[in-house]
Amino acid sequence: ATSAFFTKEEHIGYYSLFMLVESGVLGMFLSGNLVILYLFWDLSIIALFFMLFHFGGYDRRYASIKFIIYSLLSSSLLLIGIIMAYFYLPMHSFEISQLISNGYLIPKPFQIAIFVLLMLAFIIKMPAFPLHSWAPDAYSESTPEGAMLLAGVLSKFGVYGMLLLFVSMPIAKEYSFYFAVLFAFSSIYASAIALVQKNLKRMLSYLSISEIGIIGFAITTANIIGLNGALFGSFSHALIISLLFLLTFSIEKVFGTTILQRLSGILNGYRVLGYSFFFAILATIGLPLTTGFITDILILIGGARSFGLLILVPALAIIVNASYLFWTYEKSFLTGESNEIFEVLDKNVYIAILLLIILIIALGVFPSIILNYIGVII
Q1: Are residues 66 and 103 in the same domain?
Q2: What gap in Å lies between CA 237 and CA 316, rounded to an integer?
Q3: Are residues 141 and 280 in the same domain?
């Protein structure tokens, strides 16, 4: 869909940065070494910074500087944590497998220090309260692909890191309840902030933060159902939030704005966008036969087993998310006459929308495609 949003003169530089981000993402998730993981982590961040700084929206410079400051803080904490893990592992190794199998051998005071450093790094990247303020600016000022990468992919750096911590360090389970409270609060806090947003992009930014908070909560359960929910939810979140941002940037391209007060009658004016957005809302709140349903069921069951009534907080966040999404849809998509159409979407955008919808339904109908693989990992 990139060609639908950028001129030919911008393609070469933009695609180069895009491929650097993709290389960094693949390298980080496939890495078996902490140093290599760190290098690919930074490669993705640097490429995304230049994508945002050069190709972003009106306030791209402010958003990109804020993004890189938080990212450098996250990278610094990660690097210090990695170095400490190397020195205090008995075998002095950067191998992730060694950390997973021998992390319990690290003396407890240093386990705590490493755990805190790495958790802060990962909370910034997810992001979660209170280190989330870079995300709404970065998401809303990015290009369509940049927003999808930031919300759908970069946030999983933090999720992946948290999973490594909870399977490698016994100390993580001792503090799991406190972080469960933090992530539960993050989910409902972001939902509440989303309620008062006047721009559809920023509303979706806080929706993404809320959903990531729920995934973080699932990791802290440290039980098989919760971890399955967190991992499956990561795939689900990447697909659904990418679809929502793609549709939102498409709305901006067609109608010239994403300010909610200026949008009306979208369903009448551009039915593909209207129906697709409604489907994305249903998937977000957990419609059966979508990935959102599988995610919510697994996380709610896993959370109830580990934390009892605390699961009501992320459950309330899901309800609040549903309420403002339906309210927004009623006001901007169903009510009033359609805005003037400035431009018709390129066919590549339709293809991208269709592919995301197919994946959301396919993995919702056949979740075993992901869950069987997750079971092997866990």
Answers
A1: yes
A2: 18
A3: no
Whether the Cβ atoms of residue 138 and residue 68 lie closer than 8 Å to each other: no
Give the alpha-carbon dihedral of 281, 138, 140, 28, to 10 degrees.
-40
* Cis peptide bond upstream of 127, omega within 30: yes
Question: How far apart, in whole angstroms, are the C-alpha atoms of residue 153 and residue 150?
Answer: 6
**Residue 264 and residue 243 share a domain:** yes
What is the rounded CA–CA span in Å between residue 28 and residue 41?
Answer: 6
> Do residues 57 and 179 share a domain?
no
Residues of the chain predicted below pLDDT 70: 1-10, 339, 375-378
pLDDT of residue 376: 46
Do 267 and 339 sit in the same domain of this protein?
A: yes
Q: Could you please report the per-residue DSSP string of 163-187?
A: HHHHHH-HHHHHTHHHHHHHHHHHH
- The predicted pLDDT at position 188 comes to 95
Report yes or no: 235 and 291 within 8 Å, Cβ to Cβ: yes
Asked if 215 and 152 sit in the same domain, the reply is: no
Angle CA(124)–CA(157)–CA(47) in degrees, nearest 5? 90
- Domain total for the chain? 2
- For residue 91, what is the DSSP state? T
pLDDT, position 211? 94
Indicate whether 98 and 160 sit together in one domain: yes
The whole-number pLDDT of residue 271 equals 87
- pLDDT value at residue 5: 60
Q: How many CA atoms lie within 13 A of 35 on its CB side?
A: 6
Token digits of residue 18 = 């895009």
Residues 6+ apart with CB under 8 A from 183: 128, 213, 214, 216, 217, 220, 314
pLDDT for 10 equals: 58
Give the residue from 81, 370, 362 showing the smallest Cα distance to 232. Answer: 370
227 neighbors 219 (Cβ within 8 angstroms): yes
pLDDT score of 375? 60
Question: Are 201 and 167 members of one domain?
Answer: no
Q: Which domain does 338 fall in, by range?
A: 175-378
Last residue of a domain, one of 171, 188, 206: 171
